[in-house]
Amino acid sequence: MPRLYLIRMPTRLTRLLAALMIMAALNGCQPDAPQLASSTAAESVQDKLIDAELKRATDSVWSLAGLELKETQRQAQHLQQSIDLLLSTPSELTLSDARDQWHKTHQTLQQLAPFFSLADINPGLFGQLNESRFLLDAWPIQAGYLDYFDVYSHSGLVNDIAVPMNAKTLRSQHGFSDNGDISIGLHAMAYLLWGEDMQRPIDDFKASAALSANQKQSGMSIVDLPSNRRRTLLKLHSNLLLDDLDALQYRMAHDASAVSINYHSLSPSARLALWRQSLQQLLADDLLATQLAPKLSPSGDFIEHNQFSGHHAQALQHNIAGVERLLWHKVGERDRALVDWLLEAGQADLRQQLQNLQQQLADRDEQWQQLPATAHTQLLQQLQLIIEQLKPA
Predict the structure, then answer these.
(1) Final residue before a domain boundary, out of 246, 265, 284
(2) N or C: which end of the chain has fewer CB within 10 A?
């Protein structure tokens, strides 16, 4: 019968193996690894929820442009009707109505300023918005490029019968050799409506039906007379304005437009950074540095935005109104507005400051040209406080 041999291991080795087996068993039951994975998954879900909320907020902000533009288009249609009435029945009353409607149209357009600022900070993605702004709201203008000015009684497109008065020509002449060569847009229209020193006579809008002997001898026709060309130019301005607003509406609202595609291709966090930069660009670089601060300069060469139409402070007021609307706009009641993402605290203070500044500008509009330096400095300080609040923490 074969013998069985029992191999006896040394005691220390046996104990070591037993300890190793126990540690292996314990490691197999450790909850640390699953807890870590669970924590990471929870953080991932939370990040996705935050991104979704921020996406809704920044989508909502973009949709605001379409709403603002619809109102601008509505006002521009009223402006076109006012121009038609002025040309059919020239009078001080119809001229006044056209001027009032010009201001309503211009002011609604100013509320789009934060969107136009996107083109300044990222022309690669939003350069087309600069093109739209130049077509709609280019300023300052060389008044003599359009019509008689100062001692130049026969200057401008109105008096140059070698230039055909039609839409194609006007578009080709816009910015022809200089950014001041403005042939279309709201400020070109303003010069036709107000003239130099707001003294445009009503006779400038009356149709001329007779040629002088010298005019006949020079080969002129009825349509070549300055008042008739001015009337044609003003009518073209109102038509082209609507066309260019339609084009801007497409760029902002249509899914196939490059501007819209570029915006919606950005991550929510990139959009948030973009809006912070846009607001700083508008408030600090455009309004503060370009439009408000230079008024205190002793050089005296500052040109107001509404150089010929007046109500300069109202234009600034509606820029600020556009900022407020952008910050607090939201589609759903439970959605978070853009301001919730830009500021952790102080929202009520910021809104109050924005509203106070708007009210101050509205109250001082009529005395804007004679505004004391102390009052102007107060406006600058109010705007600087707003800028500081919107800076990154």
Answers:
(1) 265
(2) N
